[in-house]
Amino acid sequence: MTHPGDAGTPPNGRSEAVLDRDGLHALVRVLRERGRTVIGPTVRDRAIVLAELESADDLPHGWGVDLEAGRYRIRRRRDGAVFAHSAGPQSWKSFLHPQRVRQWTADRDASGELTVREEEPPAVSYAFLGVRACDLRAIRVLDRVMTGGRFPDPAYGSRRTGAFIVAAECTEPGATCFCVSMDAGPAVDGGYDLALTEVLDEAGHRFLCRSGSEEGAAVLAELPRGDADDATRTAAAAAVRGAAEHMGRSMPPVDLRALMRDTLEADRWDDVTARCLSCGNCTMVCPTCFCTTTEDVTDLTGDHAERWRRWDSCYDLDFTLLNGGSVRASARSRYRQWLTHKIGTWHDQFGSSGCVGCGRCIVWCPTGIDLTEEAHALHREATAKGTAR
Ligand code: SF4
Ligand code: SF4
């Protein structure tokens, strides 16, 4: 290992180095010393959740996960891998676009004068540690939705601007992962400050670390590190390639946008509706679902009022409530809306798919509904009816 300040910067302006576990500890420490609130994976309540890290000791050393439709279990691993687990119940959306945000407060004083105060955006400076390729893509999707239109969201913008991202390339996908089908992983392709690839082989436990920004290079220069060597580069590339070859799920290899458009009246929607509880879990865990509603609350005196924004779901009957009733009164129409928007009309609205293949909605659906299975079934039905393109 060399020490802080020893290594140079390669000609392309990007730094590359090898970190060991001390280097990972230093990374969390340096980010905290720079005033960042470091968020990363940690074990809590028998799940790998995202929470503030005080040190790299909080990371899930030696923990993995077993996933299936409607099933999530953590398990001990024989090795001490830190990032050999796939998506947990939360995504980075929980920090960038929190479940509840107060928008304003209103107070009436003794003279009856009303003062309304808009909520100030939070002065938080995040560092996200361990962001997978699928979730990096999801953040890009959210950026487009929340800041790329005519009505940017300042609360999202203040959390997102300047957030320092440490990506972790995926080397062990879960049984419900399909980022390859959505062209969203497992390798990261930009949008990070630092990217880690974990390597565990006879040469030891280490992380190939490359910078993707000036600040990333500056942070890397402060860490104890070794030179990036060909053996580590080769092992890291092989691990990511292996992950791509072992996806647990896949989408049918067709134009999903056209498939959704051409199967709006398919019988399969009745089949899935018979299993769907309209609980909205899939929208809560999805890293790109962004819909919200607002609620006004007052205290008992009536002199203090607040407006809160909270996550909402297109599965909720009230989501499309107009005078005369809900536009999507049937569970069939609500499931169909969710799936056709997510992988179909999202393209028309935001220029990309709304699905990044993280598999969370499959794992956290209480009845194990699997959107890849539904897409395959819709494709089979369209093929049988001769309507598949
Ligand atoms: S639709 Fe499901 S698999 Fe796709 S991004 Fe959302 S939670 Fe992940
Ligand atoms: S698909 Fe599953 S998670 Fe989504 S609303 Fe239906 S039952 Fe709930």
Distance between the termini: 56 Å
User: How many DSSP helices?
Assistant: 12
Output the radius of gyration: 23 Å
What does the largest sheet look like?
8 strands, mixed
Bound molecules: iron/sulfur cluster
* Overall geometry: globular
Strand content: 15-25%
Unreliable stretches: 1-11
Helix content: 25-40%
Structural features, described:
The structure is a single chain. The protein has 389 residues and is an alpha+beta fold. Helices cover 31% and strands 24% of the residues. The protein has two domains: 16-245, no CATH class; 256-385, no CATH class. It has twelve helices and 16 strands. The strands form four sheets. The chain has an eight-stranded mixed sheet with strand order 3-2-8-9-10-11-1-12, with helices on both faces. A four-stranded antiparallel sheet has the order 7-6-14-13, with no helix packed on it. Helix 7 packs across helix 10 (331-350) and helix 7 packs across helix 12. 42% of the residues are buried. The structure holds iron/sulfur cluster (2 copies).
Task: Please describe the topology of this protein.
Layout: E1 16-19, H1 21-33, E2 37-44, E3 47-52, E4 63-68, E5 71-76, H2 93-96, E6 100-108, E7 114-118, E8 126-131, H3 133-147, H4 154-160, E9 164-168, E10 194-201, E11 204-211, H5 214-221, E12 226-227, H6 230-245, H7 256-262, H8 268-273, H9 281-285, E13 292-298, E14 304-311, E15 321-322, E16 325-326, H10 331-350, H11 360-363, H12 371-385
Parallel strand pairs: 2-8, 8-9, 9-10
Antiparallel strand pairs: 1-11, 1-12, 2-3, 4-5, 6-7, 6-14, 10-11, 13-14, 15-16
Bound molecules: iron/sulfur cluster (SF4) (2 copies).
